[in-house]
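Researcher: Please translate sequence to structure tokens.
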Amino acid sequence: MLDRNTAPSFKATKKITLPDVEIASIGSGIELFSLVNHNLEIFRLEIVFKAGSYFGTKFGLSYFTSKLLPAGTKSKKANEVAESFERLGGFLEVSQNQERLVVTLHGLTKFFEFYLQDLSDLIFDPILPGEELEIQKKIASQSYLVNIEKTSVEANKIFREGLFGTDHSFGKTLEPSDIDLISLDEVASFHQEYIKSSSFNMFLVGNIHQKHIALLHEYFNKETIHSYFPIVSPKMNDVFELRKEKADSLQSSIRIGRRMFNRHHPDFFKFLVFNTILGGFFGSRLMKNIREEKGLTYGISSSMVPLASEGYWSIGADVKKENVPLALVEIQKEIEELKQQKVTESELSLVKNYMKGSVLSSTNTVFDTMDKHKAIVHEHLSKDFYDTMLERIEGINSTDVQDMANFYLNDLSTVVVG
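Model: Translation complete:
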């Protein structure tokens, strides 16, 4: 009989093993990655184009293409397409970032085939209405004018401009002056080159069978002619310190950081552990000092952002104007302490267990697992990147953490807005 008075013995998980995805070629330059779970009655299909903000003749073309794709086809209006998906329990999302444009369909497996004609038409034969473009341009301009009044938004903008420059998409923000210059012909040309004539990847997960794979062959086997060029990072800029006053603002937003590396770098996991200790979770040193002890902010954090060929690292916090000097002093104090003193084994163990738990919880569902496979594909990671992650985290010691602080946290740029 189970003894409920005695807690089960603790057993650390040392390794995770992601289930393999099936890979099939749909057409020239088109690959399908699929992961099956027959316990579900649903599926998720993601169609990913290398058509992010970095590409195209103007900044913003990817963004407005993503907004116009759901605006109807030559045979159906936007509301008719939306209703056709919703009537069968499905819904569509179109998103984009610096590198990719993604069309995502969630639906019921039993209606899989009935979604595909409208989905294919929206992607490859959209109507791209001019009146909808004008509406989206007005929305984007108004959103910018509203959001830029927030100190956090403006601090992020200035910080990225300082790191990457305003001539590179990594450092750009879509502003009204850019929005006004976007024409329908340019959106149509972008769509033709980077969507309609371009290769892409498909990620299908859920209750799927071979008949569903065959249907994707039927609807998405396209001739692709566009060849990609790699994303090139801008030159490194000098360290900067910028302060922008906003007289009517009650708080100030702080951003401190620098250009860094992506997941391929040999120091990635070492720095990830260091970052978690400093500001990467609720029990971090920055949170304990600046939120809990000093009461200077509701939240402060540090994070790594991997990009195509590099990345950046930053600390972010919002504080009252009068508390900015003290907050900056305390942030630097925590950094210096990590440079001068090794972390204790108890703190290091706590952080590593937190990180390993986060990794395990991020693979709970079949959809989470596919997200890991997407990262492997998009970032050209080794197939065992996530399988060996727990071991790599566990292998990091206090000397590694101190080395990261001393090697990477000397030339930091600072932005304060408010």
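Researcher: Any highlights?
Model: The first helix runs from residue 61 to 68.
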